[in-house]
Amino acid sequence: GASWEAGAGGGGFVECAEEDGGGALCVGGGGCFRRGAEGSQPDVSPAGCGAAGFVGRSFASDDEYNSYEASLGSIDPVVEAPRDSLKLRENLAALMSEETGSSYVVDGRGFPNMVRKAVLLKRSGATRRFDEFTENKMKIYPLMFAEPLYFSFQEVHVDELSFSEVYDAVSDAAVIIGVCGDNLLAAIFAPPSAAMVEIFPYGYSDTLHKSGGSAGLRYSRLNLSSMAPGDHDWPDLERLYGTNIARCIEENADCRGFYRDRPRLFFSDEDLAMYKDLVKSAFQSIHDSERIEQLRSFDGVDEIDVPVFKSKKW
């Protein structure tokens, strides 16, 4: 079974959902996935969730174990969607249908179809927060690119919702955007080949949610180039590491926590321009994908010339 709880870091987490035939999921704030990803614990955790070599990812690739099932890594030529991640999606779709009585629209693999929907996975808590003005900037571009392509746009406050509500919001989403943290663990529910944009605080970066935790998502990242006005570097940075923040974060847990868990985040003009380009590319990658047939069946979409991506004013 799967449990969804509010994590101290500002997002919910799933704590070991496993079904026969594959699809084991072991992630979470303080759970075995984070310990394995950060390299601070043995490969096999006390909860039994670990697996040798699982560093910063949730699923085994198709070539790491034998299976009678055919490999589906070719579901999209741009990304790899491991059969393990597809099995999890199938199991969750079946479980959620049974538990909620909802009628999920499924494709041949047994999980929800991708629809023209973009979601912003929001954080709460005291860290990695934008002020209201910058938060509004973060929403402008998804809204701007969503409308001409007939996408809906939804803000999802992960830690304020039930598991089923989060699943409903993400399991059929085509575009996912959010600041790094436990809130992005929900990206593993997204359809394979969905597009994801992850934002990192100044000085910090990791691979915990790359490709949606290796779940077969089209992935891009934005590393903020500036601190919020009035903020400063880690007090011991210059004494121990000079100006090498990357080495500081890699070798020193206090340094890593300092840059990861900043109270305030800030978009410089350069960051905002890069964010705009990444969001635009995410929407366009979905629109241009010829392998997502359910998107192409939307009335009139094939005739749209997508002027929003060609006009100089954008």
Could you explain how this protein is built, in words?
With about 325 residues, the chain is an alpha/beta fold. It is built from 10 helices and 11 strands. It has helices at about 30-40, 85-100, 130-145, 165-170, 210-215, 235-240, 245-250, 255-260, 270-290, 295; strands spanning about 5, 10-15, 15-20, 20-25, 115-120, 130, 150-155, 175-180, 195-200, 220-225, 265. The strands form 4 sheets. It has a 5-stranded parallel β-sheet with strand order 7-5-8-9-10, with helices on both faces. A hairpin with a 2-residue loop joins strand 3 (about 15-20) and strand 4 (about 20-25). Helix 3 packs parallel to helix 9 (about 270-290) and helix 7 (about 245-250) crosses helix 8. The longest helix has 20 residues, at about 270-290. The termini are far apart.
List keywords for this structure.
314 residues, two-stranded antiparallel sheet, single chain, 31% helix, five-stranded parallel β-sheet, alpha/beta, 10 helices
In short:
Helix content is 31%, strand content 15%.
Helices and strands, with pairings:
Elements: E1 4-6, E2 12-14, E3 17-19, E4 22-25, H1 32-38, H2 83-100, E5 117-122, E6 129-130, H3 132-146, E7 152-157, H4 163-170, E8 175-179, E9 195-200, H5 211-214, E10 218-223, H6 237-241, H7 245-251, H8 253-260, E11 264-265, H9 269-288, H10 293-296
Radius of gyration from the CA trace? Answer: 19 Å
Number of beta-strand segments: 11
Question: How is the main sheet built?
Answer: 5 strands, parallel
* Total helical elements: 10
The termini sit apart by 46 Å
From the helix content, strand content and strand pairing, which structural class follows? alpha/beta
- Cα shape: globular
What ranges have pLDDT less than 50 throughout 5 or more consecutive residues?
1-54, 290-314
H/E topology pattern? EEEEHHEEHEHEEHEHHHEHH
